Amino acid sequence: MADERIYMTAILTPTPGKEDRLEEVLLKQAEHVRKNEPGTLRFQVQRGTERGGTETRFVVWEVYKDEASHKIHFESEALRNLMQTFQEEGLADGPKNVFRTSAKGGVTREA
Question: Where is the ABM domain (predicted)?
Answer without folding.
Answer: 6-99
